[in-house]
Amino acid sequence: MSSAATSGTEQAIAPLTAAAIAELVGGRLEGSGDTEVRRVAALDRAEAGDLSFLASRQYALQYARTRAGVVLLSTELAGLKAQPGPAARVVVDEPHAALLRLLPHLYREAARPVGIHETARIGRGARIGEALAIGAYAVIGEDVVIGDRTWIGEHCVIGSGAVLGSDVRLHAGSTVYGPARLGDRVIIQTGARIGSDGFGYTFEGGEHRRIPHVGRCIVEDDVEVGANSTIDRGSVDDTVIGAGTKIDNLVQIGHNVRIGRLCLLMSQVGVAGSTRIGDGVVLAGQAGLAGHISIGDGARIAAQSGVFGDVPAGETWSGYPARPHREALRASAATFKLAGMMRRLERLLTERE
Amino acid sequence: MSSAATSGTEQAIAPLTAAAIAELVGGRLEGSGDTEVRRVAALDRAEAGDLSFLASRQYALQYARTRAGVVLLSTELAGLKAQPGPAARVVVDEPHAALLRLLPHLYREAARPVGIHETARIGRGARIGEALAIGAYAVIGEDVVIGDRTWIGEHCVIGSGAVLGSDVRLHAGSTVYGPARLGDRVIIQTGARIGSDGFGYTFEGGEHRRIPHVGRCIVEDDVEVGANSTIDRGSVDDTVIGAGTKIDNLVQIGHNVRIGRLCLLMSQVGVAGSTRIGDGVVLAGQAGLAGHISIGDGARIAAQSGVFGDVPAGETWSGYPARPHREALRASAATFKLAGMMRRLERLLTERE
Amino acid sequence: MSSAATSGTEQAIAPLTAAAIAELVGGRLEGSGDTEVRRVAALDRAEAGDLSFLASRQYALQYARTRAGVVLLSTELAGLKAQPGPAARVVVDEPHAALLRLLPHLYREAARPVGIHETARIGRGARIGEALAIGAYAVIGEDVVIGDRTWIGEHCVIGSGAVLGSDVRLHAGSTVYGPARLGDRVIIQTGARIGSDGFGYTFEGGEHRRIPHVGRCIVEDDVEVGANSTIDRGSVDDTVIGAGTKIDNLVQIGHNVRIGRLCLLMSQVGVAGSTRIGDGVVLAGQAGLAGHISIGDGARIAAQSGVFGDVPAGETWSGYPARPHREALRASAATFKLAGMMRRLERLLTERE
């Protein structure tokens, strides 16, 4: 087996003509239908063999100068001028959605050679499935269980006793410790750490003594965890990430946290220990949640918010400390107005008293 | 030596009866004293063979429905009803503290095989102690010094010239660079980086030129560093983490920072270069400290605070920019009140002038 | 080839006398010109063989007690007393700048043995340059291109198809995925991740479906990326880091972000997808930028700011939500004043109405 090291990288496969594109997306072709493209590129970086798209008037200037061969654009922007303009244009209702539909025709996922690399180390008692791909220098501990068609990237370390489902992908250099249970189709990006010991101490005898961590770290089906993110195992409870939840890069999930299904946690979010998060919750970038609080189903937390109390289902909160978004906006606006009237206000108070 | 890859994972050892539990924690037994448990689990996830605990009325509903075999609960909650309820209950003053005392009777730390894995690489001139455990694919540079009974996890890299004490644990995939000096009983979690070059440049000749980093990175006895955290070496001074200080995941410590003894730095905290932190300081999650400031002994900084100036010993500060917590709370409360009276205030000012 | 594992660590080479120091920096020598020093250390940690410096009156007490052999100090501080004081002092206009000029005379960069470690794995079709140093257990994918004199640290993983320039340094345990293009003299610190898949989903059929990522990750000449930082590849556009830009530890750069030349991004900064950043921009620690916004050339964003809209060239913004720094300061000051006058204000409003 070769030492191929890849990400889940997409590779270009075959060219498409403008006419084929128009047919695939149900769009209106303008210009030369036999213009061929092989790749996708932004308007200002595209070359003659590239497909690009214009979804917003904000990029009209880039469109005017683009060298792309074919451009997808919306009906309302179809009248925009370009000099000399792309060889072909395809007018559709939603250029971005159309582009996503075309991607599988232009790219396919890089295949990963099936097999266990000769340098991979597999511990005693490990039960591994069929059609696995295990990369160079991966280390798999004792009694690990792995389902079928799972990919273990180069340099991954899987602790003794961990259980991984089928069609799981661990990207290079990630760590999955023994207390972890990963469902099917879970994706762990490079450098993520699953199931490490949490941060818990009692102060006794003049020192911080580590609380033993005996809980698990359960990552349900279809969860994705971003590069260099960290998810601690439970202390006496389990840490649980619900099915279909997606976690971005550099996110921290503390011990005993339970996150529901289909949530989105954006980059650099932090969730402190024992907090409960419902289903379909969105936490925007750098938001922080205190420990031992509850976030209701479908709630949305704005970027950089600091949440110190429970958030009811369906509500949008923002700010520091976080409040319902409308209140936070009003308070913020009032603060900026206040600065302008502060002198008048001081004079008035002084006169009156 | 096997390729066992483990975290400092706790493993279940032997069952305990409810009667034994009551005796160990000095509690009052109610129900069947010979009920056996083998593991700890939260009320809502516990099964018949599990020990659980109820410390707050907040979880009364989970208690009412729990399937746990034995539950520790406080005197004031001892009267709560459960259907059918656990087979045995043990009433104690502090259920959580009692649980922690029981953990060593239910779990023991996973043993790590002593020895140097055949794939580990050890550089010339390295002096290593007795009873070491060095995992698969670990790379140890030249002239490294390591004390007795230290564990080096799989894939760790220790740079030439680094010095590690006794009973140190480096978890898988962590990096300790040459300028680092680690004391005894230091724990470095998976993916943490100790002693990397700091962020320092001078702008000359139209470019940012790197300032050479020649300082050390000194991590004293009993320090713990969380997963994927980063601690830079000093530039011309040393970076120092004082004895007994505990650092959570994804924390950043800049060059020349000096942190005292027994501090707690929670997840995603950032400390900019050359800042001094006293003893017993607590920095809550996502707090940020500017460079070149001083935080006095015993100070506490609230989550997400942005600290731009010195904080006196013993004080609690919060907010952005951080102020004494009481002031910050008053300012925050006033801001939210202000929004409600803004229209009246504007009218008043207009009338008067 | 040995298994030497080093950072770009500086090593002490030869002693300097106080007289030589005075000559090298054009300073005035006071005391014993033949005092020798071999290392640099802060005033309070320096020993007799060390060079130290005093640039600010803030450290006068440390100066008074220092055991350093030679101290650089500024003209205005030259009169300060020390007991017994350093054996020699060198008075200069800018002690810190003088110190930086002296470093190359005291330290030299650790040499890295040229050659490919016997455990390194190199994929089919890889084209690698001359005088490379490739460390233990590095894994290089198929068709990778690497220029001359590049260093690949221990445990690095380079994905198939990646292109690296000359004089590049990848520190231990970093990942460069296939979509990445690294220019010359790029430095990637330990644990950084370049070119991983971004965070993009569409919600269809009751689940978050991953958007294929087909863009590149272009890191231009002289860029540096800090420990454990993450830079995602583009989705349909490219992610681009402009020449000479320096990125600190634990920074997140989302997909399709374009950063200009000579920017500084400090620790824990997060930049959400598709945002454009001009040349010479400074983003201070923990600042967060929303997606799809523009930051003009030379703009400066204060620490922890949350930027949700465009920032014009040359301006300094701060706060949450970020505003021009002067406005943000006024609003913040007004807020703290407000708390003190809230009761009087409430009474006044009640009386009037």
Q: What labels would you give this structure?
A:
homotrimer, 353 residues, Udp-n-acetylmuramoylalanyl-d-glutamate--2,6- Diaminopimelate Ligase, Chain: A, domain 1, UDP N-Acetylglucosamine Acyltransferase, domain 1, ten-stranded parallel sheet
What does this structure look like?
3 copies of one chain form a homotrimer. The first copy, chain A, is an alpha/beta fold and 353 residues long. In chain A, 15% of the residues lie in helices and 31% in strands. The longest helix of chain A is centred in the C-terminal third of the chain and has 28 residues, at 325-352. In chain A, 59% of the residues are buried. The model of chain A has no long low-confidence stretch (mean pLDDT 93).
CATH class of one domain in chain A: Mainly Beta
Query: Largest sheet of chain A, order of strands side by side?
Result: 10-13-16-19-22-27-30-33-36-39-41-42
Question: What is the quaternary state of this protein?
Answer: homotrimer
Strand content of chain A: 25-35%
Q: In this structure, how is the largest beta sheet of chain A organized?
A: 12 strands, mixed
CATH superfamily of one domain in chain A: Hexapeptide repeat proteins
> How many strand segments of chain A?
42
Q: How much is the average pLDDT of chain A?
A: 93
The CATH topology label of one domain in chain A is UDP N-Acetylglucosamine Acyltransferase, domain 1
Low-confidence stretches of chain A: none
Most extensive interface: A-B, 72 and 71 residues
Q: Helix/strand-derived class of chain A?
A: alpha/beta
Radius of gyration of chain A: 26 Å
Helical element count of chain A? 4
Shape of chain A: flat
Corresponding CATH architecture of one domain in chain A: 3 Solenoid
Give the CA-CA distance, first to last residue of chain A.
87 Å
Helical content of chain A stands at 10-25%
